[in-house]
Design goal:
Helices cover 35% and strands 25% of the residues. The chain has helices at residues 13-21, 30-33, 58-67, 71-83, 145-172, and strands spanning 23-26, 43-50, 96-97, 100-105, 109-114, 120-129, 133-142. Helix 3 (58-67) packs across helix 5 (145-172).
């Protein structure tokens, strides 16, 4: 029903690095899960990202994370999503972000969705929390045994890619270090 619970709040070196860089995997709150429009959520994960103070909207963060990724990463993402059977929009527009259709849009919340041809459908939630944090959640519906097996195989890579994308925006948009008054 949810993402793997092992390691969600662990103290492995990977998770310690996440904390330093401002990215943290957390349990999905019920109110966040309720934002999904999927008829059923079979997998979910949620990350919090600390950033420098910004007035960016949730949509601007989504476009920065997905459309602002390096070209090779964008191609890898769309190829992976297509291989999973997700139906992506073919043209760039205000109605989509890197192929994912906008399902809900406010300044603080952007919900993107992609229905699947092979029994796997998904949603990506971007939620601005104040001016210096972003919540990112993934929701997946798995409609058949093939979709369940496929997702089980790709889920570890999904988490790795999400961490990488979020770390990239956290580093690019992080709080400047405070000067402590030492020499210099």
């Amino acid at each position: 029903m949810s993402g793997s619970s092992s390691g969600d709040r662990g103290t492995t070196p990977e998770h310690e690095a996440d904390e330093v860089l401002g990215v943290r995997k957390v349990a999905t709150p019920p109110a966040v899960r309720a934002r999904s429009t999927l008829t059923r959520v079979d997998y979910e994960d949620t990350f919090l990202v600390r950033t420098a103070p910004s007035d960016r909207t949730a949509e601007q963060w989504a476009r920065t994370m997905l459309e602002g990724a390096p070209t090779t990463r964008r191609h890898m993402l769309t190829a992976g999503w297509t291989a999973l059977g997700l139906r992506l929009a073919l043209t760039r527009s205000e109605a989509s972000v890197l192929g994912w259709t906008v399902r809900q849009r406010t300044p603080d919340v952007l919900l993107l969705g992609a229905d699947g041809r092979l029994g796997l459908s998904g949603e990506l939630l971007f939620e601005r929390l104040g001016d210096d944090r972003l919540r990112f959640a993934t929701f997946v519906r798995l409609d058949n045994p093939v979709a369940r097996r496929t997702w089980a195989a790709v889920e570890p890579r999904h988490v790795e890619v999400v961490r990488d994308l979020l770390t990239r925006i956290a580093c690019a948009h992080r709080r400047p270090l405070e000067h402590t008054g030492g020499p210099g």
